[in-house]
Inverse folding.
């Protein structure tokens, strides 16, 4: 990872789409603070398209699509995408997404609860459609990194996908992720060409479930708290901010807009 100061004016001038994780990238200590929300509005006012790419549930994404200054939102780690159009919210679901009441996922949940007695579903599970989210550090008591990796290992042994974020382990059936749905939405909604236009995208993230985005988009930025996960990750972002969370995101947006003049 290079310091954000190494981002050039030429790179910034090509950006059309600003994609970002939410938890601990756009938020700080669980809150969407004024600096980060104002940065979203600055992007909107400058004509850049902001698109959150999150593990958060469908219910949250409906609100975000309606009330935030964003062009779309991808949720549940790529299972769905929502955007506001002509006065209503359009909903797009990945063709491989499997509902989270599927018996296979229920079996996986039972095994996790049996092997890790402290494991519990996230409190936002009620508003999810396609994945199971196991809380590791959003609410107290927190689980250990070893517990998170144990949950991931069980899921992979059972043939499911499991990704560790800064707050949850998200589990689903189907071969999709943040990157595949992000590229699909950009193409479907805005005419983006994934082979030709990758340099028009910048992605902000902070944790291992952002690796598909870091590996696909050459212009990626990690907020400073990504350092916690460096040893767990195979692919890191190209640049890193000095500040953590939403303050780091705001720092990155300020840098991009300043370079664009």
């Amino acid at each position: 990872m290079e310091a954000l100061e190494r981002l050039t004016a030429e790179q910034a001038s090509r950006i059309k789409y600003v994609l970002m994780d939410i938890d601990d990238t756009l938020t700080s200590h669980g809150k969407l603070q004024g600096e980060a929300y104002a940065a979203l509005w600055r992007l909107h006012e400058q004509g850049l398209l902001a698109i959150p790419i999150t593990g958060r549930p469908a219910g949250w994404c409906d609100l975000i699509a309606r009330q935030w200054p964003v062009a779309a939102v991808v949720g549940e780690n790529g299972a769905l995408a929502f955007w506001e159009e002509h006065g209503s919210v359009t909903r797009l679901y990945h063709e491989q997404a499997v509902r989270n009441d599927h018996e296979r996922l229920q079996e996986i949940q039972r095994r996790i609860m049996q092997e890790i007695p402290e494991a519990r579903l996230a409190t936002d599970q009620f508003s999810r459609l396609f994945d199971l989210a196991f809380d590791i550090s959003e609410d107290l008591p927190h689980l250990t990194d070893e517990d998170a990796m144990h949950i991931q290992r069980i899921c992979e042994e059972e043939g499911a996908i499991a990704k560790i974020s800064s707050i949850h382990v998200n589990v689903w059936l189907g071969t999709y992720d943040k990157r595949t749905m992000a590229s699909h939405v950009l193409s479907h909604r805005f005419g983006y060409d994934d082979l030709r236009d990758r340099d028009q995208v910048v992605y902000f993230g902070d944790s291992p479930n952002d690796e598909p985005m870091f590996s696909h988009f050459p212009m990626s930025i990690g907020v400073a708290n990504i350092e916690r996960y460096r040893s767990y990750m195979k692919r890191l972002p190209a640049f890193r901010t000095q500040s953590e969370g939403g303050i780091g995101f705001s720092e990155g947006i300020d840098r991009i807009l300043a370079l664009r003049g």
